[in-house]
Write a structure and sequence with these properties.
The chain is an alpha/beta fold. It is built from 15 helices and 20 strands. The relative contact order is 0.10. The structure holds 1-O-alpha-D-glucopyranosyl-D-fructose. 1-O-alpha-D-glucopyranosyl-D-fructose (TEU) binds next to loops.
Amino acid sequence: MERKWWKESVVYQVYWRSFYDSDGDGYGDLRGVIEKLDYIRSLGVDVIWLNPFYVSPDKDNGYDISDYYSVMPKAGTMQDFEELLMEAHKRGLKVIMDLVVNHTSNEHAWFKESKSSIDNPKRDWYIWRDGKQHQPPNNWRSYFCPSSWEYDEVTEQYYFHSFAVEQPDLNWKNEDVREEIYKMMHFWLQKGINGFRLDAIALLGKPEEYLDAENPYDIRYLTNNPGVHDYLHEMNRKVFSYYDALTVGEVAFVTPEEGLLYVDEARNELNTLFHFEVCDEMPTWDLQRFKEIQKHWYEGLGGKGWNSQFLNNHDHTRLVTRYGNDLEYRIESAKLFAAMLHSLPGIPYIYQGEEIGMTGVRFNSINDYNDISMKNKFNELVENGQDPEDVLKLLQPLSRDNSRTPMHWNDGRCAGFTTGKPWININPNYQNINIEKALQDNDSIFYFYKKLITLRKNHLVFIYGDFQPILEEKDELYAYLRTYQNETLLFIGNFSERKLPVEYNLSGADLLISNYKGIEELNILRPYEARLYLIENV
Ligand code: TEU
C-alpha cells in the first residue's frame, strides 16, 4: 500500500460547542477553536475533525442540518470558519468537516417543500410511505425513537427517520438529491478543507420494501442496505477524486469483510472507516474480545484497506472511565490505552480532553442531560412504567453527554471554558483534571500523548508495520509486534490491577516509552503498565 499523508496522521476531534467559548454565551465556538489552535498544535497532531457547525435547529447538536451552506450563529460566522481554516493551515494543521447527508433537519427547506404536498417536486427527496391500518408502514425502530416513521397529518403519509423525528432521511435513490449533495461537498472542499468524516454513511442505502423486522430492537436493518456502495463509488468519482482528501466513514454494524467494501483502495469509495465492534458492542472492557476484534480487522482489511483507531468520541463515553480505571489508576490506564491506540494499525483519533484523562460524569437529574438519544430513551422506558431513578442509573454510563461536558482549561471558574453559563454542566473534577495543570507536569497524560505522536513521526513502523499478536493466551496481557523495513516495534500492556509476568526476552530491547517512572522488574508489568520497545528484527 502506498504512503499517504492521512495514513501518517493523528486526528484530534474538536466538539467545538464544548471546546472553548470566546464570547461568553456559554457555548464553545469557532473563534474559541482559533484561540486554542496553538494548544492543539503543541500536542503534535496533524488533523482537526470539527463536529457539524452548519445552520441547525440543534435538536441533535448540529446533526440536524437546515442549511448546508451557512454557519450556525451559535458557532460563529462563515468568516470565523474561513479564518479558522487559514490559521490551522498556517500551523500545519489540516481540517476535516463532519458530512451529515443521510438526513437533514425537518426544518430544511427541502423537507418543508417535500412535506407540503404529495405531488411536490421534492416529495421524492425524502422517504414517504402509506401506513397500514393507521399504523406505521413497518415495525422498525430508529436509533433515537421507538419508531422510524412519523405521521404527517397534511399529506396523510409517514416519513422515514433513522434517528430523531427531527431528522428525516434523504432518499439517495433520487439522483437530484445526490447531485445537490455533491455540489455542496465541492463548495466546502473548494474552500480548502482537507476532507470529511462521513456521518452514518452506511445508512444511505435503503431496502426496496420496508418489511417488518423479526426483532425490531436489532436495528441493523437500518444500515448497510443495498445501494450504499453505488452511492459512495459515485461520490468518489464525482467529488473525492478531484481532491487529496481524507474521507473517514462512520460505518457501524459491519464485519471486517463488509468494512473492506467501504475502504478497499481498489474500490475507490472511502479512505478509511470507524467500525464500532468495540464502542457499540462492548459495554465494558474485555481484553480478549478486543484482541479478537483487532486481529479480525487486520486480517479482514488484509493490506487493502486502512483502519482507524478510537475508543471514545462525542457519542461514546470517556475511555478512561468506560474501559480504564478512572479512580486509583486513572493516569496509568489513560496512558496504557494511549500507547495501545497509537501503536495499533490504523489512524489514531484523540477526542478532546482524552489527552488529559478527562472522565465520564454523573448528573443527578435527567433535566441536566442534553442528549436527545438518552432523553428519548428515558421517556420511553418511564412511559412503559419503569422507575425514573432506575432508568436514570441505567442510562447514565453510556449517555453521550459523558463526553460532551466542557473542556477543562484550568481550575478557575467554569474550568476556564466560559465566562457565561455553560450550556451543559461541567464535570466537577475540573480542579484536579485540567490542561493548565497538565502542561506544568512533565509526567502528565498530555506529554505522554505528545511523546507517542512524536514517536510515530520518527518511526514509520508505527504506521506501516505489519501486526503480529504474541502471548495471546495471556488473558490480561496484550502484546504484539509490528515490523516495517529494518524496525520491529513491541507493545506490551497489563490491563489489570495486578502485577503480571511477561514471558518474553526483553534483554536486547530499547525502551521507547513507558507509563511508569523507570522499570522495576524487567519481566514484570505493574498494574496498567504499558511499554513500547524497538527490538532487533526477529
Ligand atoms: O452517529 C450515528 C450513530 O449513532 C450510529 O451510526 C452508530 O451507532 C455508531 O455506532 C455510533 O455509536 C452519528 C453521530 O456521530 C451522532 O452524534 C448523531 O447523533 C447521529 O449520527 C445522527 O446524525
